[in-house]
Amino acid sequence: MENRIQRIKEALQEAQYKLTPQREVTVKVLLENERDHLSAEDVFLKVKDKYPEIGLATVYRTLELLSELKILDKINFGDGVSRYDLRKEGAKHFHHHLVCMECGAVEEIEEDLLEDVEKIVEKEYNFKVMDHRLTFHGICGNCQSKKD
Amino acid sequence: MENRIQRIKEALQEAQYKLTPQREVTVKVLLENERDHLSAEDVFLKVKDKYPEIGLATVYRTLELLSELKILDKINFGDGVSRYDLRKEGAKHFHHHLVCMECGAVEEIEEDLLEDVEKIVEKEYNFKVMDHRLTFHGICGNCQSKKD
DNA sequence: AGTTATAATGTTTGTGATTATCAAACAAAG
DNA sequence: CTTTGTTTGATAATCACAAACATTATAACT
């Protein structure tokens, strides 16, 4: 964990930004909740526990900054809130999501799965793919068994 | 075009809704701008040209209704606005998009391309896929050639 | 046609997430 | 220490969208 903070610090500095205490706390919260897709509000509340003086705007600014630096991915599952997801270290691509239409649970898929599709897109549509977002909507295993 | 309006009318009636003049104008605007990923505001302005008395809320309601009936797909490219996209007739799935990071152009892909991926997801993750959203971010052909 | 029930509309007001503003705190450099 | 630029926190503003509600249209009866 310390390593990852260190790495993020370096990324910030490379882009002429500092890892201020506020930013560090925010990053820590993101690391500690890596699998939850937190909204800005969620992050704000969790950060506030550790650093009560922080302002909402600072959290928004930090999330925006980390997104620009591709440390975070800003996602939108269609419920009027942006959610933030740490990009895996070294991951070229955004990972995929399975959103359950019943219970709202969000599962992540680390596998790429899209290599072939991207090749087709590059060739047939002459489009240079830099990143992708793939979300499946459906019914998760849990909710499927409940229905029986 | 008249056919498609007729088909949409039937879909509405099947769900106990009427094709009111306001709804018809809204549908026409959507058909006339089928390739354009309009926001609710965009639709409202275009509808207003043809039917100045219409209220914003009616347009929102109509877009919502058509989305529920799967005539429209509501999409989100990450700029804080929802955009609306007519579903091709008979299409089970949402079509994909190529968003150019340079010029912002949005191209559509009709091909499914995800059949294999969905099979993997259903098997390995025990997730029943109902729909999907896939967007590629990258550089379109136009912008690629400009760079040379 | 007249009456009533229901659906749909338009105006206006609310709401909730995000952004902008701006003065104050802080940090770095001379 | 002084100056300059960065970052912060409080607050107000914005913006997309939803809710409320009175009004109007439509359909189904009589």
Automatic annotation (TrEMBL), chains A, B:
GO terms for biological process: negative regulation of DNA-templated transcription; regulation of secondary metabolite biosynthetic process. Zn(2+) binds at C100, C103, C140, C143. The keyword Cell membrane does not apply. Binds 1 Mn(2+) or Fe(2+) ion per subunit. Binds 1 zinc ion per subunit. Pfam families: FUR (PF01475). Keywords: DNA-binding, Iron, Metal-binding, Repressor, Transcription, Transcription regulation, Zinc. Fe cation binds at E115, H132. CDD domains: Fur_like (cd07153). Its cofactor is Mn(2+); Fe(2+); Zn(2+). One of its GO terms (molecular function) is DNA-binding transcription factor activity. The keyword Zinc applies. Belongs to the Fur family. This is Transcriptional repressor. It comes from Salinicoccus hispanicus.
